Amino acid sequence: MTIVYDDQDGQAAGVDVPVRRIKFTINGEKKIAEVEPRLLLAHLIRRGLALTGTHMGCDTTNCGACTVLVDGRPVKSCTMLAVQADGHEISTVEGLATASELHPLQEGFKEEHGLQCGFCTPGMMMAAKALLDANPDPTEEDVRWALSGNLCRCTGYQNIVKSVLWAAAKLRSEGA
Amino acid sequence: MYPSRFRYEAPRSLAEAIGLLHDGGDDAKVLAGGQSLVPLMKLRFASPQLVVDINNVPGLDYHRADPDGTLRIGALCRHVDLERSDLLKSSQPTMASAAPLIADPIVRNRGTLVGSLCHADPQGDWASVVLALGGSVMARGPRGMRAIPMAGFVTGPFQNVLDPDEIAVEAVIPAATGTRSGGYLKLERRVGDFATVGVAVALETSGETVTKAGIALTGVGGSTIAATEAAGALTGRPLTPDSIAQAADLAAQAARPRTDHRGSAEYKRHMVHTFVVRLLTPTDTVLAGTGQERAA
Amino acid sequence: MSQALDEIKIGGLGASRKRVEDNRFIRGKGNYTDDITLPGMLHMEILRSPLAHARINSIDASKAWDIPGVRLVLTGEMMATRNLAWMPTLSYDTQAVLATDKVRFQGQEVACVVADDPYIAKDACEAIEVEYEPLPVIVNPQQAVAEGAAVIRDDKEGQENNVIFDWEVGDGAGTARAFEQADVISKLKLHYPRSHPSPIECCGSIADFNRATSKLTVYMTTQAPHIIRAAVALVAELPEHMIRIISPDIGGGFGNKVPVYPGYVCSILASILLERPVKWIEDKTGNLISTGFARDIYLDGEMALRRDGKILAVRMHCDSDHGAFFSDAQPSKFKIGLLHSAFAAYDIPVAHLTARGTYSNKAPGGVAYRCSFRVTEAMFFQERMMQAAADDLGLDQAEFRRMNFVKDEDFPHRTPFGFLTDSGQYAKCLDVGLKAIGYEEFRRQQASARERGRLLGLGISTMTEPLGAGNSREYDILGIKMFDSAELKVHMTGKAIVRTGARTQGQGHETTWAQIVSHELGIPAEDVVVEEGDTDTAPFGMGTYASRSTPVAGAAVAMVSRKIRAKARKLAAHLLEVSEEDVEWELGRFYVRSAPDRGVTIQECAMAAYSNMPDGMEPGLENTAYYDPPNLTWPFAVYIVTVEVDPTTGVWDVLTTVAVDDCGVRINPMIVEGQIMGGLTEAYAMANMQFITFDAEGNCVGANYMDYLLPTAWETPGFELHSEVVTPCPHHPIGAKGIGECAAVGGPAAFVNAVMDALSGTGVRNIDMPLLPDRVWEAITYRRDVSGAPPVRSDD
Q1: How many other CB atoms are there within 10 angstroms of residue C189's CB atom?
Q2: pLDDT score, position C709
Q3: What digits encode the pLDDT tens for the residues C740-768?
Q4: Which residues of chain B are under the pLDDT cut of 50?
Q5: DSSP characters for C77-105?
Q6: Chain B partners of A55 at a C-beta cutoff of 8 Å?
Q7: Which residue of C has its CA nearest to B192?
Q8: A58 contacts A80 by C-beta, under 8 angstroms
Q9: Does the beta carbon of B50 lie under 8 angstroms from any beta carbon of chain A?
Q10: Is the pLDDT of residue A12 over 90?
Q11: What is the nearest CA distance from B275 to chain C, expressed in angstroms?
C-alpha cells in the first residue's frame, strides 16, 4: 500500500496530521486502521472500509440513517468518533445476510414493502435487529418505540412495522 | 458536519484522565457518551484542542443503591441502562418516568446522565430530575473529591462549576426517608425534540403528609429552574386540591419562559401549571398524545 | 390445449409483485451518489452566507488556499470571468451560482473549496473571510410590496420592485355577477406555510470532465436527467452529445431533486478546471436552507352560495413567496403552477383566480414536495373553504360536498378554470369513506363526548388533481414539451429490457414498468429488466415528479409494447403460415382463430425476429415510443380523519385515518398503497409539526432536523386504505391514473378540518398549519384564529 503526498518545498504536505491506530471487528472480520481522531465512525465505515450501506442523512444526530450496531447496541455512527471503535465490534447492514441466506429482517422488508427509496432502510434494519435480539415478540407499539430514532420520508412507517413483525414471527418459528 | 482537528487521548484510569485535563488547560473536553459534544463539534460550535475520552476507564458504568438507599449513578451509566432499570422502576418514580423521554432510543444507548448534567443544556431533562430530587454531582480532580449540590452545579447555559481539571464521576440521589412518588412530564413535539416544557416532581410522603418535595422546570428559563416556593407549598401537609393548586401557581410564577417558535411565554407558563397539576393528581384521562406527553 | 397464462402469476397488471429494487437496498448495496468513488476524486464544500441580504464588500480566500490538500477555491468573481456567476432557471429567471454583488438569502452559496478530502475542504471554507454590509431584509410578500421596500433583484435590468408576476385565469366579470346573486358569501384567508420536501438523502453530484475525450459525465441526484443535460449544455456551453448525466439510486426526491443547484454547476466547473472528478455532497443544513422549498403562499378566497348549499362561484387571490430567484420547475404557461385546479371536483359554473408572485430574502423555490405543481395548495384551500362554507350554511360536511360533486355521468367535465376532468365516481368514494369511518356513530360519540368536556373532531377532505403533465398544446418547461418515452428491446430468447425517460426515486419503476410489459406481451415480469437515469442510454424524457410517470412514461411503456406486439403478430403469422387477419392474441401467445391449438408464444416470435423473418421484414424486435398525453389524468380521493384534542394542552391525537383513493387501474396495488401511506404521513407532518420560518432579520428556523420536525414512527398514525372504487382513465392506454402525490395533496386538510371540527363551538375559523399544541391552545383559550407560521418572536 503506497500513499503519495504533494511535495511542498521538500516537505510532504499534510503528512504531519497525527493519526491513531485502532483495532476493531467489522461484521466479524478483524481490522486495523489508522485514523485521524476527528474522523467520524460513519466515514470510517463508508470510506475507509468501503461499506456504503450505512448512509448519512443529517447533521444533528436525528435521522438514524447511519445506525450500526456497536457491541450489539444500535448507535448513530455519525455521532461516534472512529477512534472510539477501538476494541469494539461493529455490525453493519452488510453483515446481516450470510453467504447463502438473507436475514429474516431483510426478507420481511421485501415481503411487506417496508422500503421505497431504500435510504433509511439499513438504519431501520439495524435498529430493528437490536430490538428483536432483546425482545423476540414485540407489539406494534414496541416496534414504533424502538424505531423512533430513525426517520423515513417515503413509507409512512406502517409497512416498516409490518416488516419487523414479519421478521419477528419468522425468527420465532425458526426457533431462533 | 466535519469537526475541526483536535488531539485525542483515551486514558485507562481516572488519574490519567485528570492528569491530561490538568495539562490540557482550558480547552480540553471530556468525552463520555458524546451525544451532546460530538454534534456540537460537527457543527463547529465547539472546537476543543484536546478531547479526553473516558469510555475506557473501568468501573464507571454502574447505577446502584447503597444499603441506606442512596442512589449512585456512575459517569458511564447510559440513559438506556436507566430506562431498563428495575431498581429505578421500583424505587425512583421521577427518574423512571424521565428515562424513556431522553432524546431517542438510539441516542440513549450512548448518552450518559452525568454527561447530560455536565453539558448543562437549559433544555436537558435530567437536570430537572436531579434538581427536584435534591441530588448532587461528585467531582474528582487533582485536589481530591468534592460533592457539588445540583442546585449550585449549573451557572448558566452550557456552563457548570467544574474546574477545567475536574471530572464528574458520579451523580448522587440522596436516600428517601418517606415513600417516593412523582414523575416527569415533557411536552415534546416529537420523539427526540427538546422539551418545549418539562416538569419534574419528586415527593416523599410519610402517611398522608408530604415530608419532602422538589419541583424543577425544563425549558422555561436560561437554565433549569428549581421551583422551591412551589415545592415548599406542598411540604408538611397532605396533598389536597388546594395545595396542588398553590404549588402549580407558584411553579408557573417561577418559570421564566421566552416566546419563540415553540410557543408563547404564556402558553409555556400554562403548561408548567398543567404539568404540576397532572403530576400531583392521579388521572386516567390524560391524553396519550402522539409522543408529546407521557405520564408516569 | 395450452393453458392461458395467469396474468397475476406472471406479474402483470394488478399483481402485488415484490420489488426488484429491494434486492440491492436490503443488502446495503444501493448505489447512491455519495456511494460512488471515482479514481482521483476530489471533494467540494460550499461556504454559505450567514446573512439574508447584504452587500459583499470583499472575499479573502488566501488562508484557504494555504491549507495543505486544498486544490481550488472558487468565488463569484472567478465564476463571473467565465460567465458562470449566474445561470438561467427553469422559470425564465436567473439565479446566482456564487454570489457576486450581494447575498440575497441566508445560506446562499458564496464560495466553494475543492480539496483532497471533505474535512479539509470544510477547514478551508472556515478560513475564507468575507466582509458583508447588511441590507434591509424582506421575509414575506407583504413586506416585498410595501412602500419603499428594498429591491432584491437589482441585478435584473428593469426590475424596479419585488414583483415577479401577476397572473389571472377564469371569468372575473361573470364571477362578480354570480356573487351578486349569492344568499351567503363565505370567506377564508390562510397561509400555507413554508415547508421542505427534505428527502433523507441530500443533493449532490460527482462531475467528471475527461480532457482526453472532452466528455463530461455527471453523477447527480436528479429526478430529471435529460432536463439537466439540456441545462448543463446551456450553462456550461458544452455540446449536448458530450454531456452524460447519470442519475444513480436516489434516496427520495419529492421534487427537491428537480432544480439545477449551484453546487452542481460549481462541481462541473471545478472538474473542468482541475481535470479530476469532483464530488459535492451537501449537508442537511445546506439542503434545508438553500434548495427548493415548498408552498409559502397566502390564499384569500370567497365562495358565493345559495342557501340550499349550491356553490354559485368561487374567487381566489394568491400571494406566493418565491424567495430570491424564480426557479420553480413547472409548466411555463402557468406562473402559479396548477393552482387553478382548485375546486375541480365540484360543479361550479364560474370562478376567478388572481395570483401575484414576489421575491424575498429566502431560498428560491416554491414548487416541490409532492405538490403536483401547486395542487397541494389548491386542494388544501378548497377543502378548508368547503369546511368553512358548510359551517356558515349550517350544513353537514359530507352532504355539502356530495351535493356539489361533479356527477359520474357528467364526465368529461370542463372546470371553470378550463381543465377537463376525465372520469370519476366521487359520491361512491365518499360513501365508502363515510362507512369506513363510521360517520353516523362518530357524530353521536362526538356529541356525547362534548357533554363531558372532551373534544372529538372529524375532518373530510376530497381532491381530484391533474396528473401527468402534459399535453404539448399547453405544457412545456423552458419550451420543451412534456412528453415521455420508453424503449423496449426484446432479445432472442424472449427476455427484454425497457428503458424510459423517467427516473424513479422510490416509486418502484423497476418493478412496475416490467408489469406493464408483462400485461401487454405476456412476458413474465421477471424476464424484463428496467433501466432509467443514464442520458446516454435512456430515451429522452422529462423525468419523474408531479406524479407524471405512470400517466406519461407508463403510457409510453404500454405503447411501445404494443408496437412490439404488432410486429410480433406479423412474425406469428409467418411462423403459423397464415395471414395476419387469421391471427388472434391471448396473453403471451398468438394462435390461429380457426385452430386455437395452433399457436406460437411471444418468445418464439422473438427468436423468429432474429432467425426466421418473413421476406422484407427488418430483423430484430426493438422499438421506442414517445407519448404526448392527450390530457391529464384525474384520480380522486376522499380522506377522513378523526381526532381528539386536549383543550388544556392543545395536543391532538389522531384516532383513525381513512383513505379512499380512486386512481384507476393499479399496476401494483402494494406499491400504490405505499405511495398513499407516504403521502398521508407527509400530510400529517405538515398539519402537525413541520414548518420553516424566518425572523425579521431573515434568519431561518428549520434549517436542521432539530428545528424542522419530521414525525417518527411513534407519532405517525396508522392508516386504513380503501381501493374498492376503480374508475379507469378513459384516455390512458392501461386505464391508470397518477397516484404518488394524492395523499399529500388531499391529506393535510383532512387533519386540519378534523381539529377545527373538534373546536367548533369556540368560534375559531382557522388555525394555520402547523397545528402545534401552543397554537391550538391559543385558539381554544382565546377563541381566536391563529394565522401565519410560528413566528420567531422574542419578548425581551
Answers
A1: 16
A2: 96
A3: 999 999 999 999 999 999 999 899 999 99
A4: 285-296
A5: HHHHHTT-SEEE-TTS-EEESS-SSEE-S
A6: none
A7: C706
A8: no
A9: no
A10: no
A11: 9
